[in-house]
Amino acid sequence: MATFALVHGAWHGAWCWERLIPEIEGHGHGAIAVELPCDDATAGCGAYAEAVLAATAGAGDDVVLVGHSLGGLTIPLVAAARPVRKLVFLCALLPQPGQSLADQLEREPEIFEAGFGEGIVRDDQDRSVWQDDDAAADQLYGDCSRQLAAWAVARLRPQARLPSNEPCPLEQWPAIESVSLFASDDAAVSPDWSRSVARERIGATTLELPGGHSPFLSRPGELAEILLSVSL
User: Fold this and answer.
1) CA of residue 18 relative to chain centroid, distance
2) Residue 196: exposure state from Cβ atoms within 10 A (0-12, 13-18, ≥19)
3) Which residues is 31 bridged to in the sheet?
4) What percent of the chain is modeled with pLDDT above 90?
5) pLDDT band at 232 (very low <50, low <70, confident <90, very high)
6) Residues sharing a CB contact under 8 Å with residue 52, sequence separation 6 or more, in sequence order
7) How far apart are CA 124 and CA 142, in angstroms?
8) How far is 26 from 68, CA to CA, in rounded Å?
9) What architecture is domain 3-231?
10) What is the C-alpha end-to-end distance of the chain, expressed in Å?
């Protein structure tokens, strides 16, 4: 039995995996939804990795790390610190050793789809916050029902800047097999960018999914079967 460690992206929490976990468990495998300190302005890359390491401390070595969106910056750090079976990048960003996401965006503004982030403001701790609920629903949950999207939007948290501004602490990419699952209608992380970069930079196997940025909400059963097929 494998354990899938599910690492959420920006603004989210462990809650976002609620529809996916029963699907994974229904196939006889375990799942752990990790809570990252995304609203803590003092928590950087190391703190995010430590949260995953703590959550998976009793899971043994047969762990599949699934990082969604910004969670893609965290899972390679965990793989460098503990045994894992595979890295799965789900509509995810890819860190580059020694560079920050902010550095990458200066050179590759095409990482995000045009218009992504409209509806976001900064709070008094310089954290990003979705002020426009409709924009959040369209960009993050475009293929979900309006009721489900509203449920998710109501749970979004502020996202601190530090993990995006800190250089990735890896000296080299961990020698772990990787898979990149990207969505054809993703309105956040560009599918065109994902399609090429995952293969070129880390030699990942790539697979295109239908739909938008959050398949764990819009099609959890289908996503569970894909995760099992590419991971085991």
Assistant:
1) 15
2) exposed
3) 4
4) 94
5) confident
6) 5, 7, 34, 36, 65, 74, 75, 78
7) 29
8) 21
9) 3-Layer(aba) Sandwich (3.40)
10) 10
Give residue limits of the domains in the chain: 3-231
Q: What is the pTM of this model?
A: 0.97
Find the mean pLDDT for residues 159-181. Answer: 95
What size, in residues, is the chain?
A: 232
In the predicted model, what is the mean pLDDT of residues 57-68? 95
Q: What percent of the chain has pLDDT over 70?
A: 100
CA distance 20 to 226: 12
User: Which residue has 């940025």 as its token pair?
Assistant: 213
Report d(CA 74, CA 38) in Å as an integer.
12
Rounded to whole angstroms, the Cα distance separating 202 from 206 reads 11
Q: Is 77 left (phi over 0), alpha (psi -120 to 50) or beta?
A: alpha
The angle, 0 to 180 degrees and rounded to 10, between the axes of the packed helices 133-140 and 146-153 is 110
Q: Which residues, listed in sequence order, are joined to residue 208 by a DSSP beta bridge?
A: 182
The encoded tokens of residue 200 equal 């070129």
Residues 27-33 have a mean pLDDT of 97
Q: What's the chain look like in SS3?
A: CCEEEEECCCCCCHHHHCCCHHHHHCCCCEEEEECCCCCCCCCCHHHHHHHHHHHCCCCCCCEEEEEEHHHHHCHHHHHCCCCCCEEEEECCCCCCECCCHHHHHHHCHHHECCCCCCCEEECCCCCEEECCHHHHHHHHCCCCCHHHHHHHHCCCCCECCHHHHCCECCCCCCCCCEEEEEECCCCCECHHHHHHHHHHHHCCEEEEECCCCCHHHHCHHHHHHHHHHHHC
pLDDT number for residue 227 = 98
